[in-house]
Amino acid sequence: MTGFEPSKDHEDFRQVVRDFAEEQVAPHAAQWDREHHFPAHLVPQMGDLGLFGLVVPEEYGGAGADFTSLCVAIEELGRIDQSVGITLSAGVGLGINPILTFGSDEQKQRWLPDLVAGRALAAFGLTEPDAGSDAGATRTKARLDDGEWVVDGAKSFITNSGSDLTSVVTVTARTGTDERGRAEISAIMVPSGTPGFDVAPPYDKLGWHASDTHGLSFTDVHVPEGNLLGARGQGFKQFLATLDDGRIAISALAVGLAQACLEACTSYASSRLAFGRPIGVNQGVSFQVADLAVATEAARMLTYKAAWLKDLHSQGRRSTAEVKQAAAIAKLYSTEAAVSATRTATQVFGGNGFMEEYPVARFYRDAKILEIGEGTSEVQRMVIARGLGLPS
C-alpha cells in the first residue's frame, strides 16, 4: 500500500470477490432474506476462494495476506448481502482470530485448517442476557474439576454458532477472582456437540436474515483443561483485542452497504421519471445522492486507514492505542453513515423504497445492527474520548 490507499493487488483481489458476490450471492440474496435461510453452501466456496484464510499463515492453510485484504473482501460481500458479509467477518474476526492470536500450536493445528478451508465455522461467545456493553459483568462460570473445565451459563446473539458447520465456540467465563477481588475472566473453547451445550432456535431478527445467530446455554459442560485459550484470567484482555480488529471489519461491512445504497440511488434517480423527467434532475434528490457519495468515501478512507494501521501494528510499527483509536473512529463513522445511507436510499426510492421487492428495503433493515454489534456507537464515543485523554 501507498499510505492507506489499497494497492493494485488489493484492487485485483477486489474484482475477484466482486465477481463471486455478483454471480453466487446477488441472484439469491432476496430469497435467502425472505426465507431466513443461512446459505451454508457458500462457506466452503468462500473457503476455496481463500477468504477465510486471508490473514492466517500458510502453515495453517492460509494465505498470509494483510488485514486490508480481509476488509476488501468483507466490503465487496457486504455490498451485495450484509448477511454473507457478516458470516465472513465473524468467521474470521471472532472465530479464527482468537485461536490464531492466543491459541497454542496444538490448538491452531487442530482447529485452523478446517476453519480456513471453510469446512467449519467457529464462533465467539461474549454477549450474555445481562452482559453486553458491560462485558465485565459476565455471569457464565467455569471451574476446574479433575482436569476438566465445567462450564455453566448462557450467551446471547452469537453469530455462526448453530449451523451444521459450527465446530467450536470460544466462550468467556468467570474462573475465579484476581488479587483485587475482581472477577477473573478466561476464554474456553467448547466444541459443538459437547453434552450440556445447547443451541437455541435461530433468532427472529429485524435484519441479517441470512446470517446464523443463536442463543447458547451451558449446563454442566465438561471440556478438557487444555481447552483454555491463552492464559487463565486473560479473557477480558483477549476479547478487547479481538473487538478492536472486529470493529475495523464491521466498518468495511458498513462501507459495502453505503456503496450499495449509492449505486442503487444513482441508478434509480437516473431512470425514475416524475413530471416527465428523471428525478435526479431535481436538486432535492441529486443533493441527497451527492451527500451520500461524500459519506461513503469518507467512511471508506477511515476504514482503510484503520486497516493500514492494523497492518503496520502487526509489523511493530504502530502502537496498540493508535489502532484502537482508529478502529473506534472508523466503526463509529462508517456504521452511522451506513444507517443514514439506507434512510437516504429509501427516501430517494419513495414508495418503492418501502417495498420488499426493492433491495433498499433489505438494506434499511440490515443497517441498524451495525451501530450495535462489536461495540455500540456509545461505546465507540467512550473509547475515542479516552483516547483523546479526556477523564473517564
TrEMBL record:
Claim: Flavoprotein is one of the keywords in the record: yes
Domain Acyl-CoA dehydrogenase/oxidase C-terminal: 233-388
Domain Acyl-CoA oxidase/dehydrogenase middle: 123-221
All copies of domain Acyl-CoA dehydrogenase/oxidase N-terminal, residue ranges: 7-118
UniProt cross-references to Pfam families, sorted A to Z: Acyl-CoA_dh_1 (PF00441), Acyl-CoA_dh_M (PF02770), Acyl-CoA_dh_N (PF02771)
Keywords: FAD, Flavoprotein, Oxidoreductase
Gene3D superfamilies per UniProt: Acyl-CoA dehydrogenase/oxidase, N-terminal domain (1.10.540.10), Butyryl-CoA Dehydrogenase, subunit A, domain 2 (2.40.110.10), Butyryl-CoA Dehydrogenase, subunit A, domain 3 (1.20.140.10)
Top-rank lineage group of the source organism: Bacteria
Keyword Transmembrane helix applies: no
InterPro entries per the UniProt record, alphabetical: Acyl-CoA_DH_CS, Acyl-CoA_Oxase/DH_mid-dom, Acyl-CoA_Oxase/DH_mid-dom_sf, AcylCo_DH-like_C, AcylCo_DH/oxidase_C, AcylCoA_DH/ox_N, AcylCoA_DH/ox_N_sf, AcylCoA_DH/oxidase_NM_dom_sf
Names of the cofactor(s): FAD
Family label: Belongs to the acyl-CoA dehydrogenase family.
Matching PANTHER family: ACYL-COA DEHYDROGENASE, ISOVALERYL-COA DEHYDROGENASE, MITOCHONDRIAL-RELATED
Protein name: Acyl-CoA dehydrogenase
